[in-house]
């Protein structure tokens, strides 16, 4: 499977961005499970997820 930023839903992109910027954060269970199944996030605690190594590479970087 090829994973591309634009293939994610708007809510998935928003959650990945949030986790990249803020670190471990709470996510709705269904969204957390979707991103976990894609390998983009990891479960950190009850309802709290953190970005995975793969997830950190998916988010596009903005040019400086």
Helix content: 40-55%
Cα-based radius of gyration, to the nearest Å: 11 Å
- Mean pLDDT rating: 89
List the uncertain runs: none
Strand content: 15-25%
Please describe the biggest sheet, giving its number of strands, its sense, and whether it closes into a barrel. 3 strands, antiparallel
Termini separation comes to 30 Å
| DSSP E strands, number | 3
Helix and strand succession?
HEHEEH
Number of helical runs?
3
- Strand arrangement, largest sheet? 1-3-2
Secondary-structure content class: alpha+beta
Q: Sum up the overall morphology in one term.
A: globular
Describe this structure in words.
This protein has 64 residues and is α+β, with helices and mostly antiparallel strands. The chain has 3 helices and 3 strands; from the N terminus they run H-E-H-E-E-H. The protein has a 3-stranded antiparallel beta sheet with strand order 1-3-2. A hairpin with a 2-residue loop joins strand 2 and strand 3 (48-51). The longest helix is centred in the first third of the chain and has 13 residues, at 10-22. The N and C termini lie far apart (30 Å). The mean pLDDT is 89.
């Amino acid at each position: 499977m090829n994973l591309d930023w634009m293939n994610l839903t708007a809510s998935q992109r928003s959650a990945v961005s949030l986790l990249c910027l803020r670190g471990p954060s709470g996510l709705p269970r269904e969204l957390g499970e979707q991103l976990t199944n894609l390998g983009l996030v990891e479960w950190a605690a009850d309802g709290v997820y953190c970005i995975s190594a793969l997830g950190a590479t998916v988010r596009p970087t903005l040019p400086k």
